[in-house]
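Hi V.,

You were right to ask for the full record rather than a summary. Here it is.
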Amino acid sequence: MKNLTIISPLLYAVLTTFLLFSNSSNAKTDLIEKLDLDQDGQISIKEAVAEPQLLAAFGKIDIDGNGLLTREELAKSKFNLIEH
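Predicted structure:
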């Protein structure tokens, strides 16, 4: 019974962390799916115009400066689009 008392909080922490990161990743993937009109797996500045918050942060998120946001760049950013 003592082992269960120790494992339960640990399991809770692991699952909570997993859910937080998976939701964040899914939100960024959904953002690409929503805005990626040419289906190249990236968001161009022209595509970002549809989301003013993303457009305002575009230059900071576009790490390599190529004018395209990749899943990796979005994942590294702290950008979160809050739906209204």
